[in-house]
Write a structure and sequence with these properties.
Protein name (chains A, B): FAD-binding oxidoreductase
Largest interface: A-B, 47 and 47 residues
Number of strands of chain A: 21
CATH class of the largest domain in chain A: Alpha Beta
Keywords (chains A, B): FAD, Flavoprotein
CATH topology of the largest domain in chain A: Uridine Diphospho-n-acetylenolpyruvylglucosamine Reductase, domain 3
InterPro entries (chains A, B): FAD-bd_PCMH, FAD-bd_PCMH-like_sf, FAD-bd_PCMH_sub2, FAD-linked_Oxase-like_C, Oxid_FAD_bind_N
Oligomer: homodimer
CATH architecture of the largest domain in chain A: 2-Layer Sandwich
Strand order of the largest sheet of chain A: 14-11-13-12-18-19-16-21
Structural class of chain A: alpha+beta
Pfam family, one (chains A, B): FAD_binding_4
Number of domains of chain A: 2
GO molecular function (chains A, B): D-lactate dehydrogenase (cytochrome) activity; D-lactate dehydrogenase (NAD+) activity; FAD binding
């Protein structure tokens, strides 16, 4: 007589037609994301692995998996392409990883809007939008592999946020379709503010099937690096460029020395020890851009037109946001990073003072963006020379005491990261409505511990 | 024996092939603009009229007029369509009005840029740009008749400045070609910051022949009016809409009661006594817009899609900026107006306090825009119930004492208006270079009085 089948075995036996990943190495890999940027998360998430990974192709297959997991009380963790950095896709209590990448249809494109299944890669939307004179409003530097659902569940914004602000700003995500985690799953359309209660919750309070997002009119972007000998001049240039209302742009990043030295693939354009500003400015603005660079004593060391970028498939966008960190980590494994939000109107002083205070240990990389209120602001992804977890925590505490916001990327608990504390009532109500059994990656929400469900 | 010909007669006899306007009524009309919005200017400019008006068609014809005027020491006043409000086109010392409206060729359109002769109507550029998926970045409400050169010489910005800021922001005007006023006129191309030293000088420091301007990607704009019972709610809505980074928009205007009552052609959509917000938001943003209106207790009372606007040739843009004043003056000739620039971050309080302080006398109409530093701000064109010039001056003085900037529209002197004082050295150097004989509308620059030239 055979031993009684485990819940996982029952699940797989009951749904034999699905695309199950069974190879332990692949299961291991699909249980991880880019949380290895953090030595803290690397330690904390060691050994956390799914019991099974499934890759559904249709809404009906998703429904079957969800219904069965709900009946069997099996934890369910949602995964896009695993480009997140906070262990978003790592199951803390085992169970099933639902890999959404085969659920990837672009449903429609209209002027200013697109709707797609959650597992679509952002680059697929970008390419289809470009063909119609449109482009994504904000996207992570990982857009080639990152999914739309992953961006919504664990992302903030990125390239384009200098215009459109964070993904959370009204109009960027218009609506979504989500599934409840129950034996009889319900499928529900949420619009506007209600839809956003599922945003940046790491897939813990609902399974998003489809997303409807705003698009931007496409522009031909000139990609440039401007280099400076002087920190203050480079920062002042970046700030003025970011704020200039007459210069259309998609991206402005300030890379203080020694950050440019880590971008070895761009070494020809980044003299050792320089401070650099990476930007995407509309080609029509090149003359005004050049005038601004000169006025700040810099020079343009790299210049690619939109046509050249398109032909070469090499884009500076893949040197921005957390890609900068990735390039640095490839050069020096002992590095890690911080995430900091500065204050509108004060960020130049804050960046300058903090860069001086931590010279040799914390290296400034600031991204310009508009915040939810439409103000120009900076968000930094500083590169940190890691020594000990205690020292890292001390740096974080000191930054907070100084008066800037740290979105701690060294925790896997939702409330301890960017959420910055207890979740609002309306978000918890969404959790109760869409995951009444508490099966979505139990342990991820501190306020909703394993076994807390009804 | 005939009497010796006057300088004007010599000019006209010497250039018989040009298009001279000789009818005294037409000369009278072409010596005026919309300065009748101001009872002060109406009084001050009474009787100021050109001796002749000429309408050149080519650069060569312009050169001939300029060379002859320089030889004959005849004053020269530049004119577009006369939609300005500060007596820009009124010759203070007689002489020749150079009507530029027949010098109106669109030279080229490229992605993000256009170049045209100064006398082109803005609507001609807009139509040509729209055909290629582009549009003007900022334009006055008078765009149907106003010229490009007139906007550059006497305009500030307008519809679209909520994105691109004032026309003066780098990138909006890329370059220009200008002619010196000399017996042997020189033609000189100016680029970037140097070109802007000829901006908003009412055509007193150079004759602009061609302008090269930035364009925006076109979007389908939904035109709406949202109406509110409550002043604070309407203003808060307008402010949040203006700042929302995820809502693409071309125009946001706040019309406090009783201003909407003066817009009689929109009366069906503007209940008596309402406060209204007029906006052009990208059609893709309609759902988010509606959510925002509801959240502030308002309702959308007028809604036209881009297709409907295009078909009807009726656009809300012609109810914004100084068109609002025009509509009010049509209803009540005793009204006049103010121009006020508020302070970023404080404008909601300033608008509220000033509206209460002058209830019944000064009626708030505020336009949202980005300033040169990229901050969201408000500029008001308040409608004023006029009593005396002394009271009007008192209101202006009180506003200045309160801490907001008044761009006095009741003066015809450049330095006393928006320039706000003595002109910078580089602007005066431009005057000396391009108008060494001081012939461009003498009397308009306080710092360059009639007869001050070499």
């Amino acid at each position: 007589m055979n031993a009684p089948a485990s819940a996982i075995e029952q699940l797989q036996l009951g749904l034999p037609e699905l695309d199950w990943i069974t190879d332990p190495n692949r299961i291991q890999r699909l249980s991880q994301d880019f949380s290895w940027f953090s030595p803290v998360l690397t330690r904390q998430l060691e050994g956390k692995v799914a019991d099974a990974v499934v890759r559904p192709r249709t809404e009906e297959q998703i429904r079957q998996v969800v219904a069965a997991c709900a009946r069997l009380k099996l934890p369910l963790t949602l995964r896009g392409s695993g480009t997140g950095n906070y262990g978003q896709t790592t199951p803390l209590a085992g169970g099933v990883v639902l890999d959404m990448t085969s659920f990837n249809e672009l449903l429609w494109l209209r002027p200013g809007l697109a709707r797609a299944q959650a597992g679509i890669r952002l680059n697929e939307i970008e390419k289809a939008a470009q063909a119609e004179g449109q482009e994504l409003r904000c996207m992570p530097s990982t857009y080639r592999s990152a999914t739309l659902g992953g961006l919504f569940g664990g992302g903030f914004g990125g390239v384009g946020s200098i215009n459109y602000g964070p993904l959370a700003a009204p109009g960027n995500v218009v609506g979504l379709k989500a599934m409840t985690i129950e034996p009889e799953p319900q499928i529900i359309e949420l619009r506007g503010a209600e839809a956003m209660r599922m945003h940046h919750l790491w897939g813990t309070n609902g399974l998003v099937l489809e997303l409807e997002i705003g698009l931007a009119p496409a522009q031909p972007w000139l990609e440039t690096l401007a280099v400076f000998d002087d920190f203050d001049a480079a920062l002042a240039f970046a700030d003025q460029l970011a704020r200039a209302p007459g210069l259309d742009k998609r991206e402005v990043a300030f890379l203080a020395s020694p950050v440019p030295d880590y971008l070895t693939q761009l070494a020809e354009s980044l003299p050792k020890g320089c401070h650099a500003v990476l930007s995407l400015v509309a080609e029509a603005g090149e003359e005004a851009l050049a005038e601004l660079v000169s006025a700040h004593g810099g020079r343009v060391s790299y210049r690619r037109t939109a046509a050249e970028v398109s032909k070469s498939h090499k884009t500076l966008m893949e040197y921005t946001w957390n890609h900068t960190t990735l390039h640095a980590l490839r050069v020096d494994k002992s590095l890690t990073y911080l995430q900091t939000t500065f204050t509108p109107g004060e960020y130049v002083r804050q960046i300058t003072e903090l860069s001086r205070r931590y010279a040799g240990e914390v290296f400034m990389h600031a991204e310009f963006l508009r915040n939810m209120e439409g103000q120009t602001n900076c968000s930094a992804l500083q590169i940190v020379r890691f020594t000990t977890e205690e020292r890292l925590q001390q740096i974080i505490d000191e930054h907070r005491a100084y008066g800037v916001r740290i979105n701690n990327p060294h925790t896997f608990i939702v409330e301890d990261g960017k959420a910055g504390g207890d979740l609002p009532e309306d978000v918890l109500a969404m959790k109760a409505r869409f995951d009444p059994l508490g099966l979505l990656n139990p342990g991820k929400l501190r306020g909703w511990p394993v076994g807390a469900a009804s």
